[in-house]
Specification:
By secondary structure, the protein is mostly helical. It contains five helices and two strands; from the N terminus they run αααββαα.
């Protein structure tokens, strides 16, 4: 009887150990990527903005105009100096002195934010054709911000030119070598 009890106890102990190990392994899921964390944070921020909007907005009633309103709201938290046309440093990438021009969100930050919110909208049940972050007015606004900031800094954003594959040079076996003297 003691042998059977000892065997059962050792079996129970190994089963409990396995259970604890499995439970611990299943509860530790991989941490979300930096992109996923940022996307979730941006989505929550936009949701908070909609709740605080007067009158409060539902996501279903949100349009591209509301997205633009949100982007303009975010400008107050920007860290990028954007010179106005009246500023003596307008068009200079590295002004020598401080000026009273406003701080705004950088174009690249806004562009990345809209990309994350477009993805989050669809992941949270929104239909692609009804995505306010993909509205034409939002794309035009981003282009306008990009151009304005480029002019203010004196830097142009041009499309990257596609690199063409190098032309193949004739192989040595295809080149004819002659020992004839050059013709005069």
């Amino acid at each position: 009887m003691d042998i059977v009890s000892a065997t059962e106890n050792s079996h129970l102990e190994s089963t409990n150990t396995a259970t604890v190990t499995v439970t611990a392994a299943s509860s530790t899921s991989p941490a979300p990527s930096r992109y996923e964390s940022q996307k979730r944070r941006d989505w929550n921020t936009f949701g908070q903005y909609l709740r605080n909007h007067r009158p409060p907005l539902t996501l279903a009633r949100c349009s591209g105009a509301h997205v633009l309103e949100f982007l303009r709201y975010l400008d107050q938290f920007g860290k990028t100096k954007v010179h106005t046309q009246m500023c003596p440093f307008f068009g200079h990438p590295n002004p020598p002195h401080p000026c009273p021009c406003p701080l705004r969100q950088a174009w690249g930050s806004l562009d990345a934010l809209i990309g994350r919110l477009r993805a989050a909208f669809e992941e949270n049940g929104g239909k692609q054709e009804a995505n306010p972050f993909a509205a034409r007015v939002v794309r035009l606004y981003l282009r306008e911000v990009r151009d304005l900031q480029a002019k203010a800094r004196g830097i142009s954003y041009e499309k990257k030119k596609r690199k063409r594959p190098p032309q193949a040079l004739p192989m040595a076996s295809q080149v004819q070598v002659t020992n004839d003297p050059p013709a005069l």
